[in-house]
Amino acid sequence: MIKIFSPVRANLLGGWTDQELWPEMAAVSNVSIGWSGCFGGQYPLMMNESGQLKSKIKGRGTGLGISSIMLALELIQKNPKIVNDDFIGVIHKVLKLERGISKGGWQDQVGGIVGGLKLTVTNDHRDFHIRSKSFHPALEHMVLFDSGVRRRSAGIGDRIRELIETRESVFYDHMRRIVFEAIRTFDDVEAEPLINKTLISWRKFVEFVPQMEIPIKLPKINKKLVYGSYLLGAGAGGFGITWVTNPGYRFEVVDVYRKAGIWAEIPLVINSGPLIVN
User: Fold this and answer.
1) What is the pLDDT of residues 166-197, one digit of tens each?
2) Helix (DSSP H) and strand (DSSP E) numbers for the chain
3) Which residue in 161, 112, 155 sits closest to 270, CA to CA?
4) Domain extents for the chain?
């Protein structure tokens, strides 16, 4: 069997609209990332020839979409051509498998196996329009950190699904807003709109589900250096993004985190998706 090297995904805007229960238009922007020192130099995940997933990331509940990406890699390993021949089929097959596990959405597998920055739009969670590009100015402002906390996303997801099913009006307004912002900011030529909207979106989600809050106290950093931070995935633990105000400040922020005992890296945008090695 083949060996596959894979990125993980960092969600940006529109997360949770990828839930199949969400009855309106959905749109999610996310980006495939890795960092130096990983498999093949930059890939955090590697599925070996025996189908075993090796990861540079410890534990489950990281917020990086690993469980769904792993399921997608298993499908690709059995049929490498499926990425080109039936990519939408991969999304549907992983969704079907996830229904019996975590009730996850579709953004994770898209984020892991389509390279670069993606915008995925759908009206029915069946037909997907996916745009991908290699650059957005906001991506040069990212610092990836690990809270060190691993969380179960089930309780958070259950609360989100409850809000969807009860048609909570304020929550629906927020979901519609982040769909709009995911689409609107995708082609921006400035970094700040997308950065600001990710922080606003996450803070609003924390109001609905307080468990999404960052579970550790991050080091105090001069406000001239950072816009703010948010957690990836379902929140309540795992990895997060700190946005710096100038790309040159990333090294300083990483250094501050590491001195405080917090794992941090400058993420690399992986534009190729999984690397298949025969």
Assistant:
1) 999 999 999 999 999 999 999 999 999 999 99
2) 8, 13
3) 112
4) 3-135+269-277, 138-266
Three-class DSSP category at 245: coil
Task: Report pTM.
Answer: 0.95
pLDDT at 32 over 80: yes
In this prediction, residue 152 has a pLDDT band, given cuts at 50, 70 and 90, of confident
CATH 3.10.180.10 is the classification of domain 138-266: no
Work out the percent of the chain whose per-residue pLDDT is above 90: 89
Question: Considering only CA atoms, which of 6, 3, 10 is closest in space to residue 198?
Answer: 10
Q: Which amino acid is at 24?
A: E
Distance CA 33, CA 272 (A): 10
CATH number belonging to domain 3-135+269-277: 3.30.230.10
CB 267 within 8 A of CB 34: yes
Secondary structure of residue 111 in the 3-state scheme: helix
Q: Does the pLDDT at position 153 exceed 80?
A: no
pLDDT band at 86 (very low <50, low <70, confident <90, very high): confident
What are phi and psi for residue 137, nearest 5 degrees? -60, -30
Asked if 240 and 222 touch (Cβ cutoff 8 Å), the reply is no
**CA-to-CA separations, 105 to 74, 259, 263, in angstroms, rounded:** 18, 36, 27
Q: Token pair of 257, please?
A: 């985190």
What crossing angle do the helices spanning 66-78 and 87-99 adopt, rounded to 10°?
130
Candidates 87, 11, 1; CA nearest to 49 is 1
